[in-house]
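Final report, section 2: Outcomes. Of the targets proposed, CGGC domain-containing protein is the one most frequently requested by collaborating groups, and we therefore present its record in full.
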Amino acid sequence: MVPLCHFYKMNVIIMDWKPEAAKELEKIPDSVRKMAKMGIETSVEKKGRSTVTAEDVKEAVERVGALMEKDEKTTKIAVVRCDIVSETCPGVACFKAFNKRKVCFGEYGKNTEIIGFFTCGGCPGRRVFRLVDSLQKHGIDAIHLSSCMLMDTGYPRCPHIDEIKQMILKKGVKVVEGTHH
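The predicted structure is given below as tokens.
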């Protein structure tokens, strides 16, 4: 049997950045600059050009400016959950409790958003360490340890919960135990 392979032609366009455009790009926060640059280049390419001007950057900033401004009033939280449990649980109860501000989410007002929902990556939870670093770049205020990591019935309690909790606390982020139980 001969394997069937598909080859796609890729057009690579090298963008020329005017010095003024590069200066405008530097004004964009580090945490989103790489993404912004790709978006600006895509926009310029769609216009049939290969040179990025300061006006292109300013236009992009105006278009998505609200996303780049830091909203001091928004509380940003994340939920870390058990990798094993995630095979059978899509997180509906966690989100339902958050959306209704019930159980462990009762302390939050309307101006709170979940900016991360992820698994520990499997025992012993090493992924959490890396993702907390990433979440801190986005202004995380608190991380919830999901109920599935804490319960003794239905699922076994996470054997690494104390280490995961201490690691998050050492990073200076508030830890809340539980989501919907």
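The two ends are 55 Å apart (CA to CA).
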